[in-house]
Amino acid sequence: MSLSACGGGGDGGGEGGSTTVRVTLANHVWTDNIKKALPEFEKQSGLKVEVTQLGEDQLSDQYNVKLNAGSSDIDVMMYRPLQEGKLFAKNKYLADLSDQVKANANWDFADFQAGPTEATTYEGKPVGVPIITEQEVLYYRKDLLEKAGLDAAPKTLDELKAAAAKIKAADPGVAGFVARTGKSTAVTQFSSFLYSFGGDFVDGGGKSAVASDAAKQAYAFYGGLIKDSGPANVSTDMGWPEAMAIFTQGKAAFYTEANSLYKNATDPAKSKVSDQVGFAPFPAGPAGSKPYNIPSWALGVNASSENTANAWKFIEWATGKDQTLAQQKSGVPGARTSVWANPEGTSTFPKDLADAIAASTKTGVGHDRPLVVKVAESREIVGQPIVDAITGKDAAASADAANTAFQKFLDDEAR
Q1: CA of 102: how far to CAs of 81, 108, 300, in Å?
Q2: What Pfam family is a match, any one (predicted)?
């Protein structure tokens, strides 16, 4: 699907650029919103914008073909920093934006949150600008807490464990806790537990850290929480749709998940418990509350583009404070601190969710999976101890085995 609109004059903006900026975007609410605002940008810039909008799989296929070929017919690209960001940066598909992000003080690069900018940086250089963020928060049932005599959501992981056990003991038909259980799909939500125990997937020296004491404790805790307080006969292949369904059908008290999915729990058409759902910051572990705070999507400039100056003009506008505020009001969480601090920026979110997100952005970690080139393969390796812990196997022994496999993976990737 391509769109173009008439622009005014303009001399191309340098670097041999034309007055048409070719932008490739994913199917997303963010994209729908930006398309509606394009006439405003075209009028003020004198540029024309041609949008190619694709589904995620089509987008990946197109990037694989065009970027590998060094094609110049994409100027701006919407990409997933944690899925293909390292691959794109390593292959030099993404232009270094170091000069551009400093050029306009009013645009204010320092306004972007630390976690998302960490994920759009490669070898110390910004190669993308985050446009959509996600944080992990605690979803909970207010009525079940009240029934259990609990006057507030758990603030620590130990409190979460105790509250979940208490609620399940009182009514075995209701799980105290539910979350993703699939080997690969659970990795992203497990990550906040890992960080809050003081661990990470890779240590500061680039070595596997999934057998650290902190990681072993996190695997055992996450798996044990589901094994002891989770749904009866829990499967080990649940992604977010299955876990969310258990929560929205009224079959669980607590659920840790991405905030971006919250409307599934609060929409009466989708949730039987919509009027009883509360949100809280991710509970603190031994290392504090360290949920992920990631950019699910970012904008970058194709390093082979011959229109980089105008490509940056589009990004500067699309990621500016006005557009970020407009996007956030429509339910798309942005990465700008000033927009989260603006009451208008949180006006469409439940207040307790906005508060939970605000807390997450202060302490959040900028990745929710290993930062590697072959992401899918890495998730299969580091996710195995999650499944083993849920099924009652020795989590520490499984972490040791995963550590050996993951280190080999890292060594192979470094070659």
Answers
A1: 21, 8, 16
A2: SBP_bac_1
